[in-house]
Design a protein that fits this description.
This protein is α/β, with parallel strands linked by helices and 314 residues long. It is built from ten helices and twelve strands. 44% of the residues lie in helices and 18% in strands. The chain has a six-stranded parallel beta sheet, sandwiched between helices. A four-stranded parallel beta sheet has the order 7-6-8-9, with helices on both faces.
């Protein structure tokens, strides 16, 4: 008669380690990954909040982050990406400054067998594993529909378009113009490209208001441009001119509360940063990602700004 099988202490401990690894794998990273992050700016409030979200989620998932910032300089971004590659990070999250200028960083990452995901901005999908963001054409349509409803289908619009090579700016512009183009009473009278800064928004809005004193709305590709346009409208005492933004950073939300900015779409940058790190870890753990890892967004205007809480916008 065989004696019952007895587990040795070593076997029990070994089994416990295996089970512990399996359980840990369900709730976070299976091993400690190092993720490189290339952000477009260190001063834009949007990227500041995004980085905060990334760092929070990285700590929770025990992921090490190595962050480089390009300050809207394409050459600096390429140099930063090369630095991350040389450090042999497990994956790179990058916010490309332009859709074409950043491609060498993607190619170098692929050559080094380091997967690369886009966040905030994107490039041709063939260069990336996935894009953590949104369908920017649809977001442009969304603002377009809001514009048409607010202006009742009549009026002139000036556009502050952001960087000429930024894919999200191009796609949003396309969606916005698509909606306005179906309205015979609406006309885009100006569209200017610039960096995404408040100073540029002020300068370009002043030019548009001077050239087209009867403009009814100024479209800003991001909140910094829009807040600059708000300054121009106030300086020229154009009480009937509406300004729209995009991103939902705290200064823009406050401007909506004050009735200075007509609307923005909150992209919840802190939550976005958290989702980007989650997507990175999912991919490194073998999960197949969709081409677009969708983020949560919310339109903020006079109809809902009073009841939205801070946590609704983070």
């Amino acid at each position: 008669m065989k004696r019952p099988t007895m587990l040795t202490l070593g076997a029990v401990l070994g089994l416990g380690l295996v089970m512990g690894t399996l359980v840990a794998g369900r709730g976070g990273a299976q091993r400690k990954f190092t993720v490189g992050v290339s952000l477009a700016s260190s001063t834009n409030p949007f990227y500041i909040a995004m980085e905060q979200g990334m760092r929070e989620r990285a700590r929770e998932l025990q992921v090490e982050l190595r962050v480089v910032r390009a300050e809207e300089d394409q050459v600096r971004q390429l140099d930063g990406a090369q630095d991350l590659i040389q450090r042999k990070v497990d994956l790179i999250l990058i916010s490309p400054i332009t859709a074409t200028g950043a491609v060498p960083a993607y190619e170098a990452s692929r050559a080094a067998r380091i997967p690369i995901l886009s966040v905030a901005r994107s490039v041709d999908p063939k260069h990336q594993v996935a894009f953590v963001g949104s369908d920017w054409v649809e977001q442009g349509r969304r603002i377009g529909r809001w514009t048409v409803e607010r202006l009742k289908g009549r009026g002139k619009v000036g556009m502050l378009l952001g960087p000429a090579g930024a894919s999200f700016a191009q796609e949003m512009e396309r969606g916005y113009k698509e909606v306005l183009g179906r309205q015979p009473g609406m006309q885009v009278v100006a569209g200017h490209h610039s960096p995404l800064t408040r100073a540029d928004g002020l300068r370009l809005a002043e030019d548009i208001l001077t050239a087209h004193p009867d403009v009814a709305m100024l479209y800003g590709t991001n909140d910094e441009l829009a807040l600059g346009a708000v300054q121009a409208v106030k300086a020229q005492k154009k009480t009937g001119v509406l300004v729209t933004g995009f991103n939902g950073v705290p200064p823009a939300i406050e401007a909506v509360r004050k009735g200075e900015l007509a609307m923005t779409i909150a992209l919840k940058p802190k939550s976005w940063g958290r989702k980007a790190v989650e997507a990175a870890v999912d991919h490194l753990n073998g999960k197949t990602l969709p081409k677009i890892v969708e983020i949560d967004t919310v339109v903020v205007d006079e109809s809902n700004v009073a009841r939205l809480k801070r946590e609704d916008l983070l």
